[in-house]
Amino acid sequence: MEANNTTSSLHSPCAACKILRRRCSDKCALAPYFPPTEILKFSVAHRVFGASNIIKFLQEIPESQRADAVSSLVYEANTRLRDPVYGSAGIIFQLQKQVSEMQSQLARAKAELAAVQAQHENLAAIVCMKAWSLPNDSEEYSPYIFQGDHSSSVNDYCQASNMWEDSLWT
Amino acid sequence: MEANNTTSSLHSPCAACKILRRRCSDKCALAPYFPPTEILKFSVAHRVFGASNIIKFLQEIPESQRADAVSSLVYEANTRLRDPVYGSAGIIFQLQKQVSEMQSQLARAKAELAAVQAQHENLAAIVCMKAWSLPNDSEEYSPYIFQGDHSSSVNDYCQASNMWEDSLWT
């Protein structure tokens, strides 16, 4: 009795043993993952999976992964209590739907980008062709020189286009 | 005894009662969701949640939602057996990561689209300004007329731009 009293004064029973109203031994499989303060955490997991199933799950996996397994079980149990019909599966279906919608949005954005890029390259090519066809001394109407509120000039596009074309032959 | 024999010959026990080795009564709470042929389905759910928990879950929700609840429980149980460490939570975390990555991709695509659109509008505005500054009889160099491989013309952009500007004043 004295030894038992000493043990119980040194070690509080873990949250699982408190809820299951049993003696918490040094070999308790649940104590490392449900310390005395984590009553709610064990209570939730216990309500959904049952203590014996939780112990069985933990015994089937390496010790190094048991803390992660407990976290995922508690997460799933919380989700099941919040949504008793669909639980974690409901979240998975919603996320899969969101991924599918975002894939469509992304495909549309990429198609739109490709279309605007093609339109832009087309206009730039037309402008550059026209620029090259103008006489060199026609400064007044030369598309190489633009003034006003716009910071970029056709010259930029034509030079960029020349560089790109040159790179094909070097 | 004769009545019992007649009942058992008319109704096969449900998958749950077969696995639990108990008599399947007309009031069996699991029979509607685990017919005799669905042995694996019940076996999986039973291994993860336990029969008593499954019955408890079903009793806590309206009858109209019980079939969905069984489907989600079986789904989660299958996921837990395939991934004993992370189960459904692992799928949720992966999907959340995928959504987050796709949100970044979408934001980048939208920013890139806005940049190309701005660049394109800038070039179109420059071209149209230049086009309006040319003399009307300068057909040879008029940017309204383009020939070659390109199907679109600066005229399209300038007309579109005019329409847009007009709409501000109407």
Automatic annotation (TrEMBL), chains A, B:
Domain of life of the organism encoding this protein: Eukaryota
Record carries keyword Coiled coil: yes
Lineage per the UniProt record: Eukaryota, Viridiplantae, Streptophyta, Embryophyta, Tracheophyta
Protein name, entry field: LOB domain-containing protein 1-like
Entry keyword Transmembrane helix: no
Alphabetical list of InterPro entries matching this protein: LOB (IPR004883)
Coiled-coil boundaries: 92-126
Pfam family, one: LOB
Family: Belongs to the LOB domain-containing protein family.
PANTHER family found in the cross-reference section: LOB DOMAIN-CONTAINING PROTEIN 1 (PTHR31301:SF206), LOB DOMAIN-CONTAINING PROTEIN 4-RELATED (PTHR31301)
Residue ranges occupied by any LOB domain in the UniProt entry: 12-113
